[in-house]
Amino acid sequence: MRFLIMSKSNDHFEAGGLPGPALMRRMGEFLREASAAGVLLQADGLLPSSYGARISAHDGRISVTDGPFAEAKEIVGGFAFIDARSLAEAREWGRRFAVAHDGECEVEVRQVTGPGGPGDATGGPR
């Protein structure tokens, strides 16, 4: 089953601040562990919302709003895309992802639908 582990951004990163060496080291360790376990599909950090846009569709109208956006705590700052055997395993990887951020972040774990997702009789790629 595939899961997306997302960390929320914060004011430091939204202001263009770079991750410190300790965070980079801990994230490197997380990525090596997840790769060695065979669960990591992809992981990246995202640039501040000032480099992005939001597109909304309501009542047949499309609106585009360029960043930055006001609430950093509502913005995804980075992600890891994994292939886990269960939600419990994905939650453990999500916990490790939060630990890599020194416990100073909010992490969300969401199962991805489609091949390997709910209703897929093959059980996914594993």
From TrEMBL:
<feature type="domain" description="YCII-related">
    <location>
        <begin position="1"/>
        <end position="111"/>
    </location>
</feature>
<comment type="similarity">
    <text>Belongs to the YciI family.</text>
</comment>
<dbReference type="Pfam" id="PF03795">
    <property type="entry name" value="YCII"/>
</dbReference>
<dbReference type="InterPro" id="IPR005545">
    <property type="entry name" value="YCII"/>
</dbReference>
<dbReference type="InterPro" id="IPR011008">
    <property type="entry name" value="Dimeric_a/b-barrel"/>
</dbReference>
<protein>
    <recommendedName>
        <fullName>YCII-related domain-containing protein</fullName>
    </recommendedName>
</protein>
